[in-house]
Amino acid sequence: MPTYDLATRVTAGTTYRARAYAATAVPTTFERHVLNRMGCGYSRETWQQLRDQGGAQQWFAAQLDPASVPESALTDSLVTWFPRVADAPATRAARNDTRSYGAWEYARDIGNYTTLRRMYSQRQVFETMVDFWNNHLHVPVNANRSWVMRWDYDQTVRSHALGRFEDLLVACSLHPSMLLYLNNAQSVRGAPNENQGRELLELHTLGRTSGYTEQMVKDSAKILSGWTVDEGRWAAYYDPARHTTGPVQVLGFTDPNGSADGADLAVRYLRYLANHPATARMVARRLAVRFVSDTPSDALVTELARVFTASGTDIAATLRALVASEEFAASAGQKVRTPVDDLVATVRVLGVTASAPRSQASFATAIAYLPRSMLLYSWPRPDGAPETNADWASAARMLASFRMHWLLAGGYYPDSGVRYRKPASWLPQPSLPLDRYVDHMCRMLLGRPSTSLDLKAVCQATGRGPAETVTSRHPFASYLFVRMAIVLLDSPDHMSR
After folding, report:
1. Quick one: which of 265, 269, 198 has its CA closest to 226?
2. 3-class SS at 432?
3. Please, what is the average pLDDT of the chain?
């Protein structure tokens, strides 16, 4: 990474007054907010798509029907970039055993595939919700034994991400990856493993404050017992010989549970939990914390829970109510981006284009390590990675993101399997005063006009004065571009959403 001696052209008496470059239009505050919060980040391309749809509400409505949104060719090709993820489960296990392709490599590939989809997909709300549900119904990509089926679990989440929560819960709860991760596959008659029965109530549906008891946790485990995994075929199945019988009662759900054939009992139980009022409030609050505020109002949570219940746990209907709320509109910029969210938004706004990986140093592979955070979906506990600001606002995290912005804005790393925009290509006309160029770049990277503070920060970071004229031969069109870009990318306007 090169270093430079800065010119000393900024004096104590310099006046910093932002001047508009009005030829570069900007979105409305709400348009930018919807793209940042519900999509994968503001960029000129995504804003153009929003305008082509007729505005923020029309864009969002179309996004809730992802099949109606043509996907980009690059996104459709991504699965071919990571051919090992499509291995049969038994092949994955065997390759890991022989160390020809390790579990950690499969985990990295799933994370990179998911991250790249968020970078390049036209179906941004869908990809955002895939991420949300993968975190809510969390199964780590590197968890012992369950990792073998983690790719298939991701595809299950994708098939229900904008459908009904009831169907999503059943499909994920009885998926072999979840059954293995939360130990339900180990349940035996008379001694059901309580792990999944407990997490189902605490994390996935009712929540801690719903009033369930320890006996209800035991009954929850009894209901789920019998669902297990054939680790030869890596498939979930129901084994009556493993099911614990006896009467069960969980917050209004009762059953004599007298038959060893309890496969349907578990499905009925999961659907009951999905439609319970406590689940509606838990899901509503989780959505509000992710997409509105760390401390959403009780009124918003109540309204989202009402829509969730009235719609039969319809996820898209609940999101419509969320985005239509005044609280959502007023929350712009109040959520800190996670390191991966920051990576995705930075790549989008800088127009970075990846290509199929050819080595470990290729962009599509190396992005796993760019945020200097844990690999995507590798949170070690079943509660999923945190969604609140304080968890992502440490000094260490900020410094790691500042470094990532520098590498991407300068096109320094990864430098294989990727195409970065040339610094001179950002100049909108042959020559432009620096103060107006800074305004243009604020509009391009942040989606808003510049302020005097932006101008002062750029000048101080580069040692250049606001009255200088920028041309294609000016340092701002080459080595000083990165300094200007990171001043804007390191700002709260980019690192929050």
Report:
1. 265
2. strand
3. 95
Tell me if 54 is assigned to some domain. Answer: no
- Token code pair at residue 63: 């996004």
Print the domain residue range for 346. 1-24+339-372+394-497
Per-residue pLDDT reduced to its tens digit, 184-205: 999 999 999 999 999 999 999 9
4, 74: one domain: no
Q: What is the DSSP letter of 62?
A: H
Assess whether 209 and 91 both reside in one domain: yes
Look at residue 253 and give its three-state secondary structure: strand
To the nearest 10 degrees (0 to 180), the angle between helices 434-445 and 339-350 is 120
Confidence (pLDDT) at 14: 83
Give pLDDT tens digits for 67-113: 999 999 999 999 999 999 989 999 999 999 999 999 999 999 999 99
* Closest to 202 in 3D by CA, of 136, 246, 255: 136
Measured torsion, CA atoms of residues 331, 334, 339, 345, in degrees rounded to the nearest 10: 50
Residue 12: the pLDDT is 61
> Strand, helix or coil at 418?
strand
Token pair for 256: 């004599």
What is the SS3 assignment for 492?
helix
Give backbone dihedrals phi and psi of 236, rounded to 5 degrees, phi first.
-80, 145
